[in-house]
Amino acid sequence: MTKMRKILIGTMLLILLSSVGYGADWKSFGKDADNNEWFYDIQSVSRDQDTAKIWTKIVLSDQAKADFIKKIQHNKPPSLSYEPPEFYNAQKEAELSQKDRIKKENINHRIDRYEIDCVKNRIKVMSSAWFDSGENVIHNENPPDPLFSEITPNSIEEQLLKIICNNGKEGK
């Protein structure tokens, strides 16, 4: 991928995330097994016949924040719904300045763009950005070709599927 293309994709992501963050109508729908609180943006739901796309916000628990800090201190990628991200650049993370590491230690939440296959009960992460308490992006990931994974029964993702795919009652 060329440098110009990476810059363009990064700029587009920041524009999208900033519009989602400030114009969003976040609605809480539960906590996951790690006690992170999940929200979805009602205004961002877009549906076609079989799939839906949605922005989510995950406010990290103290334990999740500690795990994130531990991973970056050991130059490991933060975990999403897929591991390990093939596009993760460990060398780049290893070159972080001390200032960047301190910034990452103020991790607060992440915002993800999901695509949900309502028919096959599958989900994929289209993009993810991690924010500090000052709403600064401190880490982002854009998998080049994200893959669907099955939604685990009784998971937070299954709750999201039920809300979003429930005959469009919650979305557009």
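Above is the first protein from milestone M3; the second protein from the same milestone is given next.
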Amino acid sequence: TIDEIKGFVYVKDLIVAFDDLDRPLEEDDLREVVMVPGTRKVGEILRDLQAQSRALAIVLDEYGGTDGLLTVEDILEELVGEINDEYDEDIAEVEHLEDGSILVDAKMIVEDVNETLDIDIPTDGPETLGGFLYDKFGHAPDVGESILVEDYRFAIEGVQRNRITWVKVERLSEGEAEQEKEQVA
């Protein structure tokens, strides 16, 4: 049952170890699982997992029942943001919206942004669109804030822990761009 976890198996172990994939798993086939109380500090759990060369732990509730599963990747993603590996589905960096604007992943590389939008953002500075916009704003922007670059309005659509995640980009007409520049000045 979920509260009587005996161990775990990596798929790669199954492929390497078994000539007969139809045979049932036996207890000898299982790897030992690390069990941690849910009240334990995440930093301590991470250190223990690293010391034991383990990638996951079962989190127990106050009654010894299973509360969940915690991986090193889960911990690191909480600290540094999403980590894409070979098992994660690729998410489109660009989505064309019905109103003609474009929703762009802030992790998109500046050179790719330049190519996609036919714009000339300097490539000798920050590597990503989000980093470029941080520099332009001069502070951690909130959702809804926007800035004009050339004839484009870059509006912040998503922020996670002060990190820009999504940006809505609109190409303005020459008149709209001039009008917006005058409003800022």
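Note on the second protein: The helical segments are 11-17, 42-51, 72-80, 110-117, 129-137, 174-184.
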